Amino acid sequence: MTASRRPTIGVFDSGVGGLTVLRALLERIPAADYLYFGDTARLPYGSKSAATVAHYATGAVHYLQDHGAELLVIACNTATALAFDPIRAASRVDVIGVVEPGAAAAASASRKRKVVVIGTDATISSHAYQRALEAKGVSVREKACPLFVPLVEEGWVEHSVTEQVARIYLSEAFSQDASDADVLVLGCTHYPLIKPLLRRVAPDHVIIVDSAESTAHAVAEQLRIEPLHLRDESERRALPRLKFFATDSVEKFKKMGTRFLGRSVEDVVHVDLKE
Amino acid sequence: MTASRRPTIGVFDSGVGGLTVLRALLERIPAADYLYFGDTARLPYGSKSAATVAHYATGAVHYLQDHGAELLVIACNTATALAFDPIRAASRVDVIGVVEPGAAAAASASRKRKVVVIGTDATISSHAYQRALEAKGVSVREKACPLFVPLVEEGWVEHSVTEQVARIYLSEAFSQDASDADVLVLGCTHYPLIKPLLRRVAPDHVIIVDSAESTAHAVAEQLRIEPLHLRDESERRALPRLKFFATDSVEKFKKMGTRFLGRSVEDVVHVDLKE
Predict the structure, then answer these.
(1) How many CB pairs under 8 A join A and B?
(2) Which of A66, A178, B189, B208: CA 20 to 30 A from A237?
(3) How far is A47 from chain B (nearest CA, A)?
(4) CA Rg, chain B, in Å?
(5) Is position A76 annotated as part of the catalytic site?
(6) pLDDT digit string (tens) for B87-116?
(7) Closest CA to B120 of B128, B111, B112
(8) What does DSSP assign to residue A45?
């Protein structure tokens, strides 16, 4: 596939969190068709076993392919962490997950070769970021932050409670031998919404790597799409076409999704995936 | 069914929360066999539509019946609130939910005829408690408290963050025309674990009604089981038999379940429910 024609990119997540990845993709690759699948009836994947996650994700990925996706983005840290290999094996098209791009960005940003990764219980327990980073010669402190997702979903993105929780989590994350880590990886697609708060709470010297942005960058590279400022006027002005599929309430998806995508979520179709 | 022989009671929840109901049942009816079904692969029901919840719960209820349950307890506020009628219609045996017993206990406890109900988003949005209480001539303020479940699951049951969150939620719940409400209904099976904290934060004059305890009381009445102190020695000493079914990781269920049940969770079988 080349950038000479408009690509159809399938984006998959367990819910609305992956819309932060779609948001980053829209900024970088506006001249594309996007199919977004949110498996909202079965979220969160974070509390489920690897086998269950692989089973669910594979069904969604097949659905996106059958609807024309030529490239798949697993915009879900848990699914990428727990089930990337089975998802890729089940797919006819190229698949990009969020872990490898985030790990690569962190590895190139870290001078100290020491990184802190935060995410859900399932992502952290999988040690997917640790494996990816250690393979690049970077040592890792992983820290599960299970309260961040519900705090973001409550809408408390700038709230004293969220700040207190962040202070507790990050002080544990950057303690002892991780005190000189110089990169913080946001290993959950909900976390970009509290990035300004995390920026205030994290040690000043720390660079924050947002897996959503790193993934959008990796997708553009895969499609050999030039940076936006190099492209011609017509392409810079091209509007993306968006279509959304959700396995649970369409109304809930629109309402919550709009906050994550940063623009109105309109064309949502309900999908009933049989297991 | 009478109390003259040992009953088999099926208890259903989306996860481990219903174990607080089982805990209350064990205290009140120790001489029974219990089958507990936790649909952990598909939790939480709180974010799902009524149709999805009804579909999932019905499958679980059939499973419990097929394994010998003679009475079913829907130990899940969300499933009771969203899908009690379809669950009862699909069941061959008697079904008791958590909403009606909690509402009945609240109605008899309230002198002011004004009650506050807290629960998950889904339970509150369903207005199931409001309908049940208004039918008893009691006016209701409902308040969703979506952060309590993840705070309990994080283990922060006595924590300054949880107390701060509780102060915010309860001050909203008891504001304006609900300021003289004299009963607080814990409309979520996770909340008994933070009952001591809620007792401190709630206004002093407020009586706390725990739906788990009210439900255990309703089950004993349904089975015509006498209060424990009236029964003979052999029955008081009888040990319950417990068997657990979980749709996701058995190890996770054991670990988390032990905290909710207040005793060791041992005999857990993994179940793969096809939709």
Answers:
(1) 61
(2) A66
(3) 8
(4) 18
(5) yes
(6) 999 999 999 999 999 999 999 999 999 999
(7) B128
(8) G
ipTM: 0.85
A154 vs B44, B147, B274: nearest CB = B147
Tell me the chain A residues in contact with residue B249 when contact means C-beta distances shorter than 8 Å. 48-49
CB distance B273 to B63 below 8 Å:
yes
Question: pTM of this prediction?
Answer: 0.89
A164, B165: Cβ pair inside 8 Å? no
Given a contact cutoff of 8 angstroms between Cβ atoms, the answer to whether A77 and A13 are in contact is: no
Domains, chain A, in order of start with CATH, read 8-97+214-270 (3.40.50.1860), 100-211 (3.40.50.1860)
Q: Do B52 and A41 touch (CB under 8 A)?
A: yes
Alpha-carbon distance of A186 to A104, in angstroms, equals 13
* pLDDT (tens digit per residue) in B201-257: 999 999 999 999 999 999 999 998 776 666 777 766 778 899 999 998 899 899 999
* Distance to chain A for B205, nearest Cα, Å: 27
Expressed in percent and rounded to 5, the helix, strand and coil fractions of chain A are 50, 20, 35
- Under DSSP, the state recorded for B228 is G
Annotated active-site residue A145? The verdict is no
